[in-house]
Amino acid sequence: MALSANDVAQKVFQMSFRGYKQDEVDDFLDIIEHELDERDREIHELRSRVRALEKKDDDFLL
């Protein structure tokens, strides 16, 4: 399963008596969400560049 920033943003954890500190978990999830957004933007940009280079290569071979 590919994990998206939206998956992280929508994740809800149950509260428990002796659980983790909610603020620390929320802060960490915010970091993960940001990193996933950056990763997805970079992948999109790189795929676009690959397509442009492939088209340029195809045009050159014609």
From TrEMBL:
An example Gene Ontology CC term for this record: cytoplasm
Primary location recorded for the protein, binned into one broad class: cytoplasm
Annotated signal sequence range: none
Gene Ontology biological process terms in this record: cell division
The keyword tRNA-binding appears for this protein: no
Keyword Cell cycle in annotation: yes
Localization: Cytoplasm
Coiled coil start-end: 29-56
InterPro entries: DivIVA_domain (IPR019933), DivIVA_fam (IPR007793)
Entries under Pfam families matching the protein: DivIVA (PF05103)
Keywords: Cell cycle, Cell division, Coiled coil, Cytoplasm
Family (UniProt): Belongs to the DivIVA family.
NCBIfam families assigned to the protein according to its UniProt record, in alphabetical order: DivI1A_domain
Annotated protein name in UniProt: Cell division initiation protein
Organism (species): Streptococcus downei MFe28
Gene encoding the protein: divIVA_2
